[in-house]
TrEMBL record:
<dbReference type="InterPro" id="IPR027469">
    <property type="entry name" value="Cation_efflux_TMD_sf"/>
</dbReference>
<keyword id="KW-0472">Membrane</keyword>
<keyword id="KW-0812">Transmembrane</keyword>
<dbReference type="InterPro" id="IPR027470">
    <property type="entry name" value="Cation_efflux_CTD"/>
</dbReference>
<feature type="transmembrane region" description="Helical">
    <location>
        <begin position="78"/>
        <end position="98"/>
    </location>
</feature>
<dbReference type="InterPro" id="IPR036837">
    <property type="entry name" value="Cation_efflux_CTD_sf"/>
</dbReference>
<feature type="transmembrane region" description="Helical">
    <location>
        <begin position="7"/>
        <end position="29"/>
    </location>
</feature>
<comment type="similarity">
    <text>Belongs to the cation diffusion facilitator (CDF) transporter (TC 2.A.4) family.</text>
</comment>
<dbReference type="GO" id="GO:0006882">
    <property type="term" value="P:intracellular zinc ion homeostasis"/>
</dbReference>
<dbReference type="GO" id="GO:0015341">
    <property type="term" value="F:zinc efflux antiporter activity"/>
</dbReference>
<feature type="transmembrane region" description="Helical">
    <location>
        <begin position="41"/>
        <end position="58"/>
    </location>
</feature>
<dbReference type="InterPro" id="IPR050291">
    <property type="entry name" value="CDF_Transporter"/>
</dbReference>
<dbReference type="Pfam" id="PF01545">
    <property type="entry name" value="Cation_efflux"/>
</dbReference>
<feature type="transmembrane region" description="Helical">
    <location>
        <begin position="149"/>
        <end position="170"/>
    </location>
</feature>
<dbReference type="GO" id="GO:0015093">
    <property type="term" value="F:ferrous iron transmembrane transporter activity"/>
</dbReference>
<keyword id="KW-0813">Transport</keyword>
<dbReference type="GO" id="GO:0005886">
    <property type="term" value="C:plasma membrane"/>
</dbReference>
Amino acid sequence: MKEKRNIIVIALIVSIVLMLAKFSAYFITFSNFVLTDAAESIVNVLASAFAFYSIYLASQPRDINHPYGHGKVEFFSVFIEGTLISIAGIIIVLKGTYNLFYPHEVHKVITGAIIIGVTGAVNGGLGYYMISKGKTLNSITIEADGRHLITDMVTSSGLVVGLVLIHFLPYMWLDSGLSVLVGVYIVITGYKLVRKSVGGLMDEADFTIVQDLIRILNEQRKVEWIDVHNLRAQKYGHELHIDCHLTLPNYFDLNRVHDEVHLVDELINKEAKIKTEFFIHTDPCLPDCCYYCSMPNCPIRSEPKREYMEWTMANITRNKKHFEQ
């Protein structure tokens, strides 16, 4: 958690410095196009500040009021960031549209382009670093902040190209027109972040994570694990919570059942890229399971195995044993 906080602090400090640089570029050029980038930099600072708090809160231990921990605050952090980005984009579109009808002259656009180009390069490098660390540390907050900085790099690159065009082309409307286009792009980016955060807060299934779990279980399944079904995955910050049913031979005693459950838990936590808490409900096998059961020397087998049942998204997430259609 200390590493996460350090990354966010660095992002916050860099965001403040770059915000001041961008506003200096605006006051040099008085370009609406530059103002789009400067306005978004305010969002960078606010988002990084809130991200720092959310990382701190997510690191707090579970308590009686939060039995699954505080990790979901990271989704709320991303929601705030996406909302702020969208608001900034809407304001930029409105101001740019106004200035299309009431244009004004811009100044020293090449100087402004150089300043914006440098800030964009810094944001791009920091953004790629944060995305990489966010995936490594399983932090949606750090990854979202990194993607926001990449968006800022893209808009800054567009700004540099646009400012060069403004310098060489005698069209006063070009500054405002380009700022409107960038504003629309910023709104779309903000919407995507809000959509992702709402999905997390609503416990929307993360199919990438579930597919990875299914792959691990298929590759290292034991013959004792007759089937897995009713699997549900919920992400709480950097941790994953999974409920599932595991069908085992009905002649296993409680100690053997406990051992098999522990093996599933141990396997996933060793092979998956995210810390996982399992709640596994065990079901006894039924005679109808025999045709896909691989258990050797089974004393209660009613028919030979005749089919290999691969675990898939379809059969592992249903609340039914595999023979139940």
